[in-house]
From TrEMBL, chains A, B:
Cyclic nucleotide-binding domain sequence ranges: 8-118
Origin species: Maribacter cobaltidurans
Top-level division of the source organism's lineage: Bacteria
Coiled-coil ranges (or none): none
Protein name: Crp/Fnr family transcriptional regulator
InterPro entries: cNMP-bd_dom, cNMP-bd_dom_sf, RmlC-like_jellyroll
Length: 192, 192
DNA sequence: AAGAAGTATTGCCCTAGAGCAACACTTTGA
DNA sequence: TCAAAGTGTTGCTCTAGGGCAATACTTCTT
């Protein structure tokens, strides 16, 4: 198997039983793309018509508040899927930007091909369901965090459950993920 | 068709094409239950093993923050599905309570039966996908609201997109949904 | 019909976190 | 290799929203 697809295959294998031969038949729908640091894959106000699997590096999904603050929704590291789901699903202009935080290598599948696989390959149907369920669960957890926890508690939560976000990314990015300013983040770190 | 299932049938019909005869075959998995005002359907720390369709009334899904504040995640009005999805999916104790806000009438399907239908009836598979997608979209929107908008802006957003929440429910409930205190909500209303 | 319990409003004061400015430190790029 | 741009820290001040207490108003309950 082409090296490029090893991580995707392993990912699918972890989620469900995929037939190796079947995988070899459809994996060509995923096209390799390398991204420079800070390269933008999707600009907001553009309709998102692809889904992304990260082989290497890290993507960031963010938008802008009414006052122009950057709000980060999600970081996709190696072995994760990511897309502007709302735009992908509704085919309306995305309010999100997708940007490579580091030099990255990704596999991109078009919306049409992706939903074709979801419809025709039961394992991919299951994987998509899993993606949606997990995305829903983490997003819900995040809502509860914002609704009921202080910035310090959100930071502690992040340290416990997603420490790589803290170790691998700049303060500025972490702050925009936590919904606080870099000043506050800097101060909070001294309170840990 | 039994009156009790008319709303569910219409709901499915709106989402996809369901075969009436097939529907009559599987609708008996959904059991009718009537709930008194304030009756609790699921207590937190209990594993949720059912999915709910609301025929009449309104359910509230909420949990408690570390300091004991009530945090409301979702209100399910007529013709909506609702469950403690995180618990249902992972079969771990729920951190949510489900409570009838008003006298309500609901259809309940067990987890096993539900996933059985998802697996065997393509239309239900599609409906479940739709439920997950929509739940994800609104939850994501909510994260962005909390992350980047003021309480006043969140209130305005609510008035625009979910006005029935404001008109039909008490201030206290609305406040716990917006992540603010009833005091603040009361004050904000004068600023509109 | 009357007391009890819950809900809404408002005044007062307090706190978490924002915003700005200054400075030190890194990284980047020609 | 050296300027330029970005990043992190910290002092000072400000503001949105929280918390409490008092009062008015509803709504349950019996």
């Amino acid at each position: 198997m082409n090296d490029v697809y090893v991580k995707l295959y392993d990912y699918l294998q972890r989620k469900t039983q995929v037939e190796k031969n079947a995988f070899l038949d459809y994996c060509h729908y995923f096209k390799l793309k390398t991204l420079k640091r800070n390269e933008v894959l999707l600009h907001q106000n553009t309709v998102c018509n692809f889904n992304i699997f990260v082989n290497k590096g890290c993507l960031r999904f963010y938008s802008y508040s009414d006052e122009g603050k950057e709000l980060t929704r999600y970081f996709a590291f190696e072995n994760k899927f990511g897309t502007s789901l709302t735009s992908l699903i509704n085919q309306e202009p995305s309010n999100e930007n997708i940007q490579a935080v580091e030099k990255s290598e990704v596999l991109i599948i078009s919306r049409n091909d992706f939903y074709h696989l979801v419809k025709t390959i039961p394992e991919i149907n299951l994987v998509y369901r899993d993606i949606l369920e997990m995305a829903y669960i983490t997003t819900t957890k995040r809502v509860y965090n914002f609704q009921g926890e202080s910035a310090l508690d959100r930071l502690k939560w992040l340290m416990k459950y997603q420490p790589f976000i803290l170790t691998r990314l700049s303060n500025k990015m972490v702050a925009s993920y936590l919904g606080i300013t870099p000043y506050t983040l800097s101060r909070l770190k001294t309170e840990l």
